[in-house]
Amino acid sequence: MPVEAKYKTTATASGGGRDGKTELADGSMALNLVVPKELGGPGGDGVNPEKLFALGYSACFLGALRVGATQTKINLPTGTTVTATIGIGPRSEGGFGITAELDVYLPGLAQSDAATLVQATHGICPYSNAIKASVDVKTTTRA
């Protein structure tokens, strides 16, 4: 499905990939990358692609909830949060894959409205749309 990109950004990774650095072309952010101990690296200070994905997915889904609330006519409660947990590991088919879990907290919202809103938001969120064919996103909805 074609996408008419309204915004683009560019980053360049250097060094060893997961143990190098990544930097935005506009200079607004540069990060040191480190391989986690669980994947055979040294761990320590630094980030990795899974941390970056978790940051982006949680923020993107929270923003998409606002659009979903408008479309479903369900009021988004103050204090709503989205926590994304991203994992990486070997796939049975070979190579590596990711796992994704979203914990969506919608304080005071009726559970049925919360479930409707989260389901609608999965069809709106660019991250959800990008991975829906390859990652089963586990969602916990708390109201």
In CATH, the architecture of the largest domain is 2-Layer Sandwich
What is the N-to-C succession of helices and strands?
EEEHEEHHE
How much helix is in the residues? 25-40%
Strand content bin: 25-35%
| Backbone shape | globular
Query: How many β-strand runs?
Result: 6
Account of the 3D structure:
- With 143 residues, this protein is α+β, with helices and mostly antiparallel strands.
- The protein has two domains: 47 residues, N-terminal domain of TfIIb (Single Sheet), CATH 2.20.25.10; 94 residues, 2-Layer Sandwich (GMP Synthetase, Chain A, domain 3).
- The protein is built from three helices and six strands.
- Strands 1-2-3 form a three-stranded antiparallel beta sheet, with no helix packed on it. It has a three-stranded mixed beta sheet with strand order 4-5-6.
- A hairpin with a 5-residue loop joins strand 4 and strand 5.
- It starts with 10 loop residues before the first strand and ends with a strand.
- The model has no long low-confidence stretch (mean pLDDT 96).
Q: Can you lay out the helices and strands and say which pair or pack?
A:
Layout: E1 11-14, E2 21-24, E3 30-32, H1 49-72, E4 81-90, E5 96-105, H2 111-122, H3 126-131, E6 137-142
Parallel strand pairs: 5-6
Antiparallel strand pairs: 1-2, 2-3, 4-5
Helix pairs in contact: 1-2
What would the keywords be for this entry?
GMP Synthetase, Chain A, domain 3; alpha+beta; 6 strands; N-terminal domain of TfIIb; 143 residues; 3-stranded mixed sheet; 2 domains; 3-stranded antiparallel sheet
